[in-house]
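ESCALATION

Customer reports they have been waiting on this structure for their group meeting. Please prioritize. Original submission:
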Amino acid sequence: LVVATLGITAGSGFATTELRLLLLDVTLELDARWPLVAITLYVDDFVVLVLEHDGMKWSRGVAVKIRNRLRRRLKRAGFGVHKETDGLDLKITGVEFDGRGLRVGPSEEKRWLVRMAVEHVVFGRKEIFSEWIESIIGVLAWFMLLGRGGFSILDESYRFVRENRGSRALVLPKVVRKELIVAARLSVLFRVDLAAKYVPFMHMLDASP
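Update from on-call: job pushed to the front of the queue and completed.
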């Protein structure tokens, strides 16, 4: 697995529209074929993942080629580029890519930071502000993109933030405390094995008689 990442000096509107089209255009130019190539966007950053295959010579180095072509295209369009990096093992926006073990998960630094923040608001404070909980949930939600089942943990936490946004200091409800502790401690399990087998088909059912 080879990862290449690049940030651009542009707003999220550009990142989610024009950048997506540029990524697709450049990938097609290089004849980079799916499913060995995957591209993901995060606001004004993009990540190219390529699983290099000995039987497909085109796959070697294609992540960096895509990154380099996009850099040239973006500069021609007047956008600056930054945070460029590539390699087998990378850390990007709090996520670690293990190119040798083919695993992706939250960085240990970020995970422990969240756990410390949770313990502070749960055990170290009598009153808190909803904005603190919203920030913690935001990072946990980023982790949970790698373990979608985790989103089911935070029902009452989301409700608490929604109903108390902008309020003065509050006592954190017991159920929210419990959800945050569980989510923080389970975050070590929010990892993806890119080499795992998958079911190549999907079953869909409805309630028709």
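Sent to customer with the following note: The first helix runs from residue 12 to 16.
Escalation resolved.
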